[in-house]
## 1
Amino acid sequence: MRARQHLFVWIFLGIMSLCLGFILVTTGWFFDRFSILIQPGVEPAALINRFLLPVFLGLFGLRFLFQRTPARYLRPYLHLPVARSHLIRFFQATSLLSLHNIGPLVFLLPFWSRHVLGVYPLPGALAWLTGIVMLLVAANFANLVCRTLLARHERSFLFFLALLTALVYVDDLAGTRYVQTYSAHLFDTLLQTQISTLLLVLLLPVWTTLASGHLLLKQLRRAEEIPASTRRWSLPRFLRRGAYSPLVLLELRLIVRNRRPRHYLLISLLFSTLYLIFLLASPFTRGEVILGGVIGLFASGGFVLNYGQLMFSWESSFFDGLLVRPLAPRRTITAKMLLLQGSCLVLFLLSAPLFLWLKPALVPLHVAFLFYNAGITTVLVLFLALRNRQYVDVSRSGAFFNYEGFSAAHWLWFFPTAVPPSMLLFVMRDAPATGLLWLGGAGLVSLLATPLWITLFTHLFARRRRGMAEGFRRRRHR
């Protein structure tokens, strides 16, 4: 049965990849028809040169979140009689085959063949394509540099990231568009075969390759792992009362004291603040309904979608010990439900001033999604978490996004969570207030039915907990 499920998932992902590849190839080949709609009278190459660098920066953000680093694959081979520098170079080379490098070329190669090659002199066309490839290689190894720096200097890196994000936002808000201007200058001079620009794009990947290799080697030579945080803290006394507060406090301590769950908390806070500013400040009109759904879902439900998916897996190292404690399953489920629902309220309060400042018209959407996330998203995510069987090492240091414990179901689960509210808002786009009322009302009804959901999840947990423990043990000892 499980083999059939995996086969279905791979077939589905294969079909989706083929469709996406066809769209990218077609768009690149017939880009001249789209450029007329975007900016008439401008050559396709001149138009796309303005946006290549901003697009690469955006793709670098996705690469930083999702691309796996060679450090994850190096450790099982360290006992072999092979020099570590050779292992690093081998896995650096294999990382170039990532979809993050191949995907942009699926669009850019047809574009280059149709709109650059034969239109501009051959040396300029080859220099332009070389610049594209070299920037992708540089981005690949720059991602390794950023992840390694983050693992060793977390606070400094996050401060620098916040500062860079603020500068890019100010550039966009002020209308100066320095990034677009520099992008146009960079690729226009490549088309003119300017030697200094070509040397720059050739030296950049060399530097990032050497820097990433040096940092990875230095990281492997560290004798000890970064110890887990031993900071002691507790909730205020009035919050420590009740039957569920100790369990909630225990989960919060797990988050704060361990690197990986703490990163999920940080990314949720960053999305609800810094990234939300970009989304709210953008002048979206045509895709306002869909984008509004995404904004509302993550603004108050980011922690649920990030951290909640791996609930119970976070405790896989000591899950057997939890099972033998005199703790009723209902208390465990209730505490986790309260933590997820409480996170929705906290993120709602943190992001509400941004909605009031940048997009006051979206405040009703923010309120409606508060009820939807607290009432429905938490239920869907906790139902998924009760199917977790994969071990997660919460103390492992390293990359910012370590996807140990994730399966295809975790990625596909986003669709039943995000698509229904977006589709409802799209269908009710002519009566948005009614759509938000239906959305918030459904969430409120589900929120009021929390005791019923807790009863259901308690039965599921009591029935599945031994299978979960067996899966955690089996995968831990592999």
## 2
Amino acid sequence: MQRLWAIVDQQETASDWRWNLLQGVGFGSAALVATAVGRHLFGIDLPFTFALAAIAIGAVLGGALTACVGAATTIPTALVFSAHHPLVTPLNTLVVTGFAIVLALFGGRMTLLRQRAGLAQGRSHQRELCLHSIFNTTPAAMLIVDAAGDVLAINRSARGILGITDPDTGRLRLADLLPGLPDLSGETATAHELCRADGTRLALSLSSGTLPFAATGLRTLHLRDET
């Protein structure tokens, strides 16, 4: 079973570090362009503003690696091209660098936790789809019923044997599908004769098993047509 889950889980993979690297370069380049456009067209001469914005966006969308690449792209470039700017001082550079590191680490950590949660949810969904597919495509006729006798799930094979054509099976009861059903508390097979709505009489072999959820009282019912 572990090998099966390993194959299923491969459908949900974590983001590629190369894509995060490319994102960081892209955000950093966009920040440099925005800084140049703001300076020359609008008179907004703030060398570190768009750099910090790019780092924050990179941390949120890509993680710590994206934010760090964005910082490495923008801050040194700002120092080179704005070396004579009054705001570009050693103290300001140190403060901006420290703030960028905090943004990268904190935002990257939050993004990592969010990505892990999304990955776990995606893998859980893939496993659910896998189990649903196995349940519906197996040739063995199966039903899942609760302690009150309500049918919670029924696969295609069981629908075919019981002659169920209505796709809405949300209100089916075991007593209606198999009238006169004997006690199936044991694990041994039990013979049962069924007369379907179309007049067909079937000789069924029924066996039941308890699902490993003791508090819920769920049971599986296996049908075999021995007519």
## 3
Amino acid sequence: MTTASNAIRAITASFKAQAQQKTDKAAQWKARLIDLKQRNPCNPVKEAKPQDRYQILSKEARELTAKTQEFEDAVYDLKAVNSNAKANQDTRTPLELLDLIVTKGCEVMATLDRLWM
């Protein structure tokens, strides 16, 4: 393991832990909100603080989860690659390429001469 991958794993673990803490706190605030709504169904003033706190914590947890996913996607950027496929590389030399260009140019000129006559 490289130190870079260890560092990134530590960062993602930290983000995951923070996201879990925020999710747990949001669940506690959600429970308080439900309890308040059951005890006082017609009092929106008392529901405002727990509702706001729940929404803020939920948003922060989602952002941390997204940030964790970004880090993991960057580290483990896996692409579908066929390891058995042959590489198609042009092995011609520059002189061979120039000769090919001249030959093809002559063919084009001959074709144009036939079309114009």
